[in-house]
Design brief:
The complex is a heterodimer of chains A (366) and B (98).
Chain A lengths: L4 E2 L5 E2 L4 E5 L26 H14 L3 E5 L9 H10 L3 E6 L6 H9 L4 E6 L4 H8 L4 H14 L4 E7 L7 H11 L3 E6 L4 H5 L1 H4 L3 H17 L5 E5 L19 E4 L5 E2 L20 H7 L1 H5 L8 H4 L4 H4 L4 H8 L15 H8 L13
Helix pairs in contact in A: 1-2
Chain B lengths: L3 H4 L15 E5 L4 E6 L2 E5 L1 H8 L7 H11 L4 H17 L6
Antiparallel strand pairs in B: 1-2, 2-3
Helix pairs in contact in B: 3-4
Classes of the chains: A alpha/beta (366), B alpha+beta (98).
């Protein structure tokens, strides 16, 4: 397929399909499970419009097909329309991942004219009061619903993203019903992943084992009930899983992530691993970064993994799991992701999954 | 669900079109045509791309089959069967509207 990419060691390299463009870390919401790092990039350091336009062209030439315009809240950028148009001009499929706050009817109409292909809006809960409490922003729920109505009226396909944790896990059915009512063709039920702010708030967010079991069953039943009406994709609650998730489809295999300040990461949490050298789009072309940057080559393939993983039948399925999680929970980014029940550290995950604390959220603030 | 004999047909007067949010794009690096949809990517072989390119919402399925048969100098019946099965598959995945 296409012309082959060759790694610095002569091996064939896959081409990325997706680019997560974190346009800004600014966001009106304060969700306590935010996947952004604890140290946020300031507005002053954000890439300018022309640099993003160049990155999109380089991405398309490298094989990227879809760009996810994200943040923070991407609409916090005054040039969000120009950025969207530039991505579309580069030939990319454009997906706006938004909180819904700050995207009024006029703006979404202008974005639609600029060629926006798809919108993903998050909801925090089906209960309005609870939703606004989780978001740390009064009125967020109402604004999200207003945006969804505008998106559907413009006939842009809508995905609703629901992040699941202890405060809303009992209302999955109601939240999927809300997504249907909002006119979504697709809903993502994403159990909180414990990185960044989510890690900081882990004990306040962690559901109990019986809650997780009930949630998994609820999703199965909802899939059957709504078959043909809405597509339900689920991100598993990995502290309660037996096998780890194949983080971003394998390190440096399918996607890349550009931070507001231009650093290129194999995944959004990669900066949590100490000692990795990331290259910046201000200094390097995207293809050079994909092929040659030390961070991308650090955990490519499976050779770096412990024997437990290298001899495992699932090594090409999950690549030993998530590097960031391996580091966060064992202190060694090369270890087997301890979510795997075969990991010698799996007991630690079970211990942490059993810790639920009733305490106030540490809201994500800049 | 997969009663192919019943579902594989596209009405001759239907005017298939890509819904908003689904696009056929050529990407050199990926080696050809791809059909892009929310969070999904489908590689389109050259024949599939020729079929999808003609689904503009203006041409009827009948006209599309005529055009393909003429362009590729192939038996009309065979084209109708193959293109019909392919388009039905896309309709079932909500990647095509009739």
């Amino acid at each position: 397929m296409g012309c082959a990419l060759v790694a610095t060691n002569g091996a064939a390299l896959p081409r990325p399909l997706g680019l997560l463009a974190e346009l800004t870390h600014r966001c009106p919401l304060g969700c306590p499970y935010c996947s952004n790092p604890l140290a946020l990039d300031s507005r002053h350091d954000e890439l300018d419009t022309a640099t993003w336009a160049r990155v999109f062209k380089e991405a398309a030439a490298l094989g990227v097909l879809q760009v996810h315009l994200s943040g923070g809240e991407p609409a916090s950028r005054r040039d969000i329309v120009e950025i969207t148009a530039a991505a579309r001009d580069a030939g990319l499929y454009t997906n706006l991942i938004t909180s819904g706050v700050g995207v009024n009817s006029k703006l979404i109409g202008t974005l639609a004219d600029a060629g926006l292909d798809h919108v993903q809006v998050s909801i925090q809960d089906s209960d309005e009061k609870s939703a606004d409490h989780i978001a740390g922003y009064e009125g967020a729920y109402a604004r999200k619903r207003a945006l969804a109505a505008d998106v559907v009226a413009l006939k842009i396909p809508l995905t609703v993203n629901i992040v699941i944790h202890r405060a809303n896990i009992a209302r999955i059915e109601q939240q999927v019903a809300l997504a249907l009512e909002m006119g979504a063709a697709r809903v993502e039920i994403a159990h909180v992943q414990y990185y960044g702010w989510g890690l900081k708030n882990r004990a306040a967010l962690m559901p109990t084992r019986p809650q997780v079991d009930a949630a998994v069953q609820a999703v199965d039943e909802l899939r059957k009930r709504h078959h043909g009406r809405i597509v339900i994709d689920a991100v598993v609650p990995d502290y309660h899983a037996r096998f780890p998730k194949p983080c971003v489809g394998g390190w440096g295999r399918r996607s890349l992530n550009v931070t507001p300040a231009g650093k290129v990461l194999p995944c959004h949490a990669a900066e949590s691993i100490p000692g990795l050298e990331f290259w910046n789009v201000k200094e390097h072309a995207l293809a050079d970064i994909w092929v040659s940057s030390p961070a991308f080559n650090a955990f490519r393939g499976t050779d770096f993994l412990p024997e437990l993983c290298r001899t495992c039948d699932r090594r090409e399925v999950d690549f030993g799991g998530c590097r960031c999680q391996a580091f966060a929970l064992t202190g060694d980014a090369r270890a087997t992701d301890p979510v795997c029940h075969l990991s010698p550290h799996h007991g630690k995950v079970e211990e942490l999954a059993a810790v639920q604390e009733e305490r106030a959220y540490a809201y994500r603030r800049m | 669900m997969s009663d192919t004999a019943q579902t594989a047909t596209i009405p001759p007067e239907a005017r298939p079109r890509l819904p908003r949010g689904v696009r056929l794009v050529h990407n050199e690096a990926q080696g050809g045509w791809v059909l892009l949809a929310p969070e999904r990517v489908f590689k389109a072989d050259p024949i599939a791309a020729e079929i999808v390119k003609r689904c503009t919402g203006e041409a009827t399925f009948d006209a599309i089959v005529d055009d393909l048969a003429k362009t590729f100098n192939a038996p009309r019946e065979r084209i109708a069967t193959d293109a019909g099965a392919m388009l039905r598959g896309l309709v079932d995945k909500r990647l095509m509207e009739l």
